[in-house]
Amino acid sequence: MKPFRALVLAGCVAALANAQQFQFNLDHLAAKASETVDISLNGSMLQLGAKFLDPKDPDQDKVKKLIGGLEGVYVKSFEFQKAGEWTPADLEAIRKQLKAPEWSKIVGVKSTAEGETDEIYLRSQNGKITGVAILAAEPKELTVVNIAGPVDLDSLAELGGHYHIPKVDVGKQK
User: Is residue 165 in some structural domain?
Assistant: First the structure.
């Protein structure tokens, strides 16, 4: 799963509020990787980027509002020339932080034929979703995503079909 797809997937399932970044140190994999993506945008950086969006453009204004309260976006992704460069222990150190009662695994997809694993975790506190974590692993690729901060799910759904964000029917609760 490419880092951008993982990031979009995170946005599509996230309704975040008061999120906290979990810790993931995968720097030891950088030396083994043929390609590395490291995105670390705190709230200040996101707000700076939002200033360049045009509030008169309806789509850009929606994006600006969507990222307005984010505390951070953190992505680490590694591609390797051969399988086996990362180990299950690399993921296990992250999974140990994503435990109940704060975190709940909401998606777990494992393809033994392809050697792929995708997991999505939500952090909740006082009945509200407060964080999202995504682990996407393939034999030659490993991606970890953490998005922190409030996102309005309905606003995110309105962006579907724009900016390469897939259109997702979230549905309104009655």
Answer: no
